[in-house]
Amino acid sequence: MSTKPDVQRSSLPIPDLAYTGTVTYDATDPDTHYPPIERLLPPEGAPNVLVVLIDDTGFGASSAFGGPVHTPNFERVAAQGLKYTRFHTTALCSPTRAALLSGRNHHTVGMGGITEIATSAPGYSSLRPNNCAPLAETLKLNGYSTAQFGKCHEVPVWQSSPVGPFDQWPSPGGGFEYFYGFIGGETNQWYPAIYEGTTPVEPWGTPEEGYHFMADMTQKAIDWTKQQKALAPDKPFFTYFAPGATHAPHHVPAEWADKYAGKFDQGWDALREETFARQKALGVIPENAVLTERSPGIPAWDEMNPELHPVLAREMEVYAGYLEYADHYVGELLDALEELDVLDDTLVYVIIGDNGASAEGTMKGTTNEAFTINHMNELEDDAYLIEHKDDLGTPRSYNHYAIGWAHAMDTPYQWTKQVASHWGGTRNGTIVSWPNGIAARGEIRDQFAHVIDVAPTVLEAAGIPEPATVHGVTQRPYEGTPMNSSFASADADEVHTTQYFEMLGNRAIFHKGWTAVAKHKDPWLASSHGLDDDVWELYNVEEDWTQSNDLAAKEPAKLAELQRLFLIQAARFNVLPMDIRSAERFNEEIAGRPALVKGTSQTLYSGMKRLSENSVVNIKNKSFTVTAKVTIPEGGGAGVIIAQGGSYGGWSMYLHEGTLRFAYNVMGIETDYTTSETVLEPGAHELRVHFAYDGGGLGKGGAVTLFDGETKLGEGRVGRTLPFFFSMDETVDVGADVASPVSADYEATGNAFTGKIAWVRLDVGDDDHDHLIDPAHQMQIAMTRQ
After folding, report:
1. Which of 56-70, 104-118, 239-253, 634-648 has the lowest mean pLDDT?
2. Would you call the peptide bond into 306 cis, given omega within 30 degrees of 0 as the criterion?
3. Would you identify the CATH topology of the domain 504-583?
4. Domain Sulfatase N-terminal: where (predicted)?
């Protein structure tokens, strides 16, 4: 099997053919002859492939598409290729990524929402069917080397623990031979939760030592590529490079944010006007395009508290620095390919956003997303934001910008991430370059395209047929259409003529120059009405590029035609039944997905770490006990026995200066400590922390009691607790507290436990005065507080 044109590639793996010639007795016999072994390689001329997917970046952010953020390396790729002005995503991260990597619509591969809200319905299960093999697997089985770096938000939450299964992870199940990155929607860029393959690994250093994940993942990608080309130079690679940038938290070295000092003092409304003018000058929107009005519910800049303006401006400075920082490291990777003399033979996709910009940062922005996900924004008032302005972007924050900035980053379109009905949620500037395969340089393409078109485009460029079977399973055909015909000509016919969109009830249909759209809910609000109460809009997007002129009242027959077509497409691609629930679906009992942990007790062992909240019993809004069997060494013990969360919210049981301690951190604004009054002697101990919940609602406080066996060591109180999440990315760790520390005491002790831990047990709901709250009731309360 090699580059020979007669190799059969429609059934993967490519079958091994048995030798049917003469078999001799003696290998030295002159009649002994076997054909030489040939390595499996793709067809001759197949390019390397690099797909760069930036996170949460709207159409109007990058300078390549008229935005205010300087992205010279994106422009560098565009100068060597093509800008696509009508490329679309799904309006949310997990669905876009699943669609990109499979060539099928997101509901077809079970990703109708993010993995954390998966249900048992086929279109929303987060389980990719085995009849939809990923692009990486197809390329690998055709002789490509494959690697993924950065974010993976496609692993079902009940499969994201260290015990797997790993068939939905990038490696091995996703077809990538190597993976270096994080699992989930986001990670702390200063203290990331990294995996190499399926093994958790720690960053090489601290923020003070210069560590940042964007730089780290880039160096890993460069090292992998150099090794691949050194050892198999004739074998092309497929590299999927998916930074956490620019998803929150917006973490970036201060000097990059400082580049933009004063550049956003005019506010988001004026910024939209400025960006719109640049977009027309660049030709990425037509001259007759109309700047849409500010989407309802988003405040004007002048409506904001003037005392907050410097904070709001700094939020955008940090975001801009973060995007330029990401662009810089994309440039580092491109430089490495150029140094290896392979860039000209590499098909490069730069997709600037897996959805529109994120309107998940509140009307004022936040220094810590935990305020929002725990519905405790009242703790972060204007005075707090002003006081902590200089923390934005640093290791002292877990920040996100205000909704007004997100809308500005989606200029010239309506709405933002999550809103699949309008282009602000789904239209992302995309750049394609392949110097040895695309003659055009610096040109613009306006053909409609969608993220599901990437996989068939790559296969056509490589000369590889879409497989009929993979691992014995008959495959569902790709639902995307190749973009290759547009490579040669700006006048090429549009081949992707129909595309549905749906996310949390926000839905639309594009068909031959028209869109019918229905926005069901705002990104920052829960659903308040039924689907049948939604108001449909109609746009002729051949004449009205930005969806600014609603024709629903003037063209009722056309609207009805498109509404019917949406339902046909929805039935065809597993969209039905649409699920407008949001908060409830975070609860696996309501959603119908498996729960990794059941019951009210769980025992963990020394060395277990990187356990997500889905991997441990839920101790929130109830009483709980943590019991640890430990051996304290001679000279005294120190360090973490068990911790959950980090500097922005969490709890820890640990030893410091020989005493047992319990810390409960509420979003970094306050930490309650309970300390034993006795120094523990060397030897075996059964240490226990009991938390008696006050009850009476969500997020209440409680009493803390420390024990050594049955001996009481100390008492204290926790004033309030976190009701919904400790962290979106920090974990439970036994014997250490990886990533950012829950307690400031770790700076003195180091966080690794110096003794031995036999086991740690978590027990919940074991107090006579416990006030358990039904999970469904918790979620209902959460919805009313949004």
Report:
1. 634-648
2. no
3. Arylsulfatase, C-terminal domain (3.30.1120)
4. 47-464
